[in-house]
Structure formats: C-alpha cells, structure tokens
Amino acid sequence: xxxxxxxxxxxxxxxxxxxxxxxxxxxxxxxxxxxxxxxxxxxxxxxxxxxxxxxxxxxxxxxxxxxxxxxxxxxxxxxxxxxxxxxxxxxxxxxxxxxxxxxxxxxxxxxxxxxxxxxxxxxxxxxxxxxxxxxxxxxxxxxxxxxxxxxxxxxxxxxxxxxxxxxxxxxxxxxxxxxxxxxxxxxxxxxxxxxxxxxxxxxxxxxxxxxxxxxxxx
Length: 218
What we know:
Elements: E1 3-7, H1 17-30, H2 37-43, H3 48-56, H4 65-77, H5 89-98, E2 101-106, H6 111-121, E3 127-131, H7 144-153, E4 160-164, H8 167-176, E5 179-183, H9 190-195, E6 200-202, H10 205-210
Parallel strand pairs: 1-2, 1-4, 2-3, 4-5, 5-6
C-alpha cells in the first residue's frame, strides 16, 4: 500500500522563518503597529489572515488586513532569488521518494512564493504534489492542509507522516490523524513541539535523514 510523507516548507525545508519575522515586523511597523519580533516568530506558520488576527486580535481594523499582507509579500519577495534550503532538505525528499514514499508539500505559500521555495529545495523530481494556501479554506492549525495533501497522495491518515517545524504544524497533523515529526530548525523549542503532538523531534532535515532508520519514516 502507498504511504505518504507530507512536509511543511517554511522553516522545515527552507530556512525562511526569520525572514518572515523581519518582513512581518516591518509590515506591522509601517502600518503603525508595535508587534514584538518574538511574538511574530511564534505566529509564523499561520496563514496571513490568521497570523494578523493572532497578533492584533479580533477587535483590530480588519480593513487593514489586505494592506498588511501585501506589504509583507512585497518585503519578503525581495529574497525570492536567494532563499536558502535547510541542510539535507532535497536529499531527504529524494531518499524518501526512492524508498517508495509519496512526497507531498503542505504549505501556506502559493504562487511566486511557492515557486521560489521549490527552486530553493531543488527536488521537484521527488515531489508528487503540493497542497497550497490556494487549495484550502482554512490553514494550519486546522487539519485541512494535511487532509488535502493526503487526498493528493491517495493514502489514509494511518499511512502518512507529517513533518513540520511549528506548533501549528503539529496541531494540524494531529487533528488530521497522522503521525507527526518535528524539526528544530524553525526555532521552536523541542518541548513545545512535543506538547503539540510531535512523536519525534530532529534538528533539521539532515539530522532526520541521518537517523531515518529509527524514525517514523523508516
């Protein structure tokens, strides 16, 4: 029977979380909001609207949301041609593909941003599909991105593992009923990932690849 390895992208396969922190912080600053960078970091991994709501609250002026998101997109877009893949990212995906796993990405990125991320990873030959922000109504921590990835792979939750770097990833995977693996390269503490549902935690894709035989992806 087929089995699926579902991967978050930002902070999991590509080293972008702190770029998101700085560009979201600047977008908020330009709009007159003083949002601490540590708070932004904890919110990275949410879709744009959910991130803004999480940081500014439900009583915010929602008419600003589109402008805030556009400002972040413009600021972050300056880095598209030099996004750095995390150590072992492409090698891990190709190894899993070679081992018979169907590799699917589940990410809040879409469009040109998603294209830049895939170029950074450099393993399109191993990626069977992508569940992007354009494909779902609710982003992480809702299970829909992971569930859509499973639909693309054509496998049940019991035959899948989700790899991510944030609490939102672990919660989404847990709600979808898949086994979850956490990576520390996004900057979230091991204890937080474990509490949110990570069955195992590794430093980065290279560490997971080196210890693949003893992992949930064995």
